[in-house]
Automatic annotation (TrEMBL):
Name the record gives this protein: hydroxymethylpyrimidine kinase
GO process annotations (BP): thiamine biosynthetic process
Domain of life: Bacteria
Entry's Gene Ontology molecular function annotations: hydroxymethylpyrimidine kinase activity; phosphomethylpyrimidine kinase activity
Keyword Metal-binding: no
Amino acid sequence: MNTYTSRPAVLCLSGHDPVGGAGLQADIEALIAQGCHATPVITALTIQDTVDVSDFKILEHDWVIAQAQAIVQDMPVSAIKLGMLGSLEMVDTVAQIIQGLADTPFVCDPVLRAGGGGALGKDEVGYALRSKLMPLATIVTPNLPEAQILAELPNGTADKCAQVLLKHCQNLLITGGHGDEHEVHNRLYCADGSSHTFTCARLPGEYHGSGCTLASALSGRLALGEELVSAVQSALNYTWRTLRDAEAPGRGQYIPRRLPLDFCHP
């Protein structure tokens, strides 16, 4: 039997999307593409398709804790990726897990809306996340609409939202693509006061799971030991390629192609 060096394990705390565009399937595929091993902990079950979300169910505290304990007692965790929470109780549950993994790189993706616009929890869940989880994160990765909710600035620019949110977190990546600009501007604000803007060509269409893909790829790059700014650039480049090559299996949004067509082919 061959024995290989283990890939870095990334603890993924996310919801399940039955069409596989977002949530844990996005996490798993994006992490495989980075050369990492995903260890998924289900926080919620959703009823959604490529058009929108219609309902969701949050798992019980004890079940989520037990899933995480089974992982961390069995293998080292090199990074944490956080996705859908959906309730105030789940914010506290996840905070308990993360506090037990101090000094582990932690990417917080504040999933507040599905790609089709449907809510995945009330706004107060976002505010609880802001106060209890963002301060624990290595980096927080909202898109601009999510940043506006978290900053309580409905029409705020990325810079204005960042001024508010950097009081709650170390590093912040606010992703673009929600306006009509020809180029997408992704803005990174760092704890040392520096900022970086990464631009890419705007692609046509709407995408289901792009935020999950980016946050997972970023957690993988950090798990591999890549420096933060470089890791953000690597994750953005990877995510753009998955959108460029996206497919349309359903009636609604495109799904990022996170693995090459010949990934498992002989």
